[in-house]
Amino acid sequence: MHCATACVATLIVTCCLAATAAHGEYHIVSKIQVGGDSGWDYLEPDPVSRRLFVTHKDHVVVIDMDTLKIVGDIPDSPGMGGVVLSRELNRGYTANGAEDTVGVFELDTLKPIAKWKATGKRPNQIAYEPTTKRIFSFNSTGRNVTVFDAKTGKVLSTIDVDGRTEFYAVDGKGMIYDALEDKASVIAIDAKAMKVIATYSLAPNKEPSGMAMDVKTRRLFVPTHSETFLVLDADTGKILATFPIGEHNDAAKFDPGLKLAFASNGDGTLAIVHEDGNNTFSLAQTVKTEFGARTMAVDPKTHRVFMPTADFLPAPAATADNPKPRQTMVPGSFRVLVLEP
Question: Is the pLDDT reported for residue 131 higher than 70?
Answer without folding.
Answer: yes
